[in-house]
Amino acid sequence: MSPSNPAAAAPSPLSLEQQICYAMHTTVRAFDGVYRELLAEHGLSYPQYIALMGVVEHGPLTVSRLGELMRLDSGTLSPLLKRMESAGLVGRARDSEDERRVLVSATAAGRERLAGLGDLPHQIAVRSGLTRQELLDLHRTLRQVTERLDAHG
Questions:
Q1: What pLDDT, in 10s, does the model give residues 13-40?
Q2: Does residue 7 surpass a pLDDT of 60?
Q3: Which residues, including other chains, have CB under 8 Å from residue 34's CB and lie 6 or more apart?
Q4: Is there a contact between 90 and 81 (Cβ–Cβ < 8 Å)?
Q5: Confidence (pLDDT) at 9
Q6: Which of 86, 89, 65 is nearest to 77 (CA)?
Q7: What domains, with CATH codes, occur in the chain?
Q8: How far apart are CA 21 and CA 3, in angstroms?
Q9: Whole-prediction pTM
């Protein structure tokens, strides 16, 4: 690969560094590390954090609806909710209208824990080094990509 031959220096479309999925994967891993650090002092994992946000914002809601919001199957979500219930963050109860469904709701302790994390989005934004507008643009782009991929899946 000589510098005088630009075609030889062009990256392969199959190069790991050229893959959008790899770029997203490494970004998610970096976010996971920051969230893990910031949430540890509050005794939460990232999945517990987003589950608690979903239940506080939309709850009470069925386990299946929470799974849709989080994009997790019940086999992954049920143990997570069981740990959260043991920690006193959520309650689970059979739906009185349909005994087959389980409703999840936030407890007072869960709401309090989430309220104590109010500064977390700001901390994440600061650590990302992006401006507010860049974050909004990135969020919009990621939502569009997700919707378009879902439409083809």
A1: 888 888 999 999 999 999 999 999 999 9
A2: no
A3: 124, 127
A4: yes
A5: 67
A6: 65
A7: 46-122 (1.10.10.10)
A8: 29
A9: 0.83
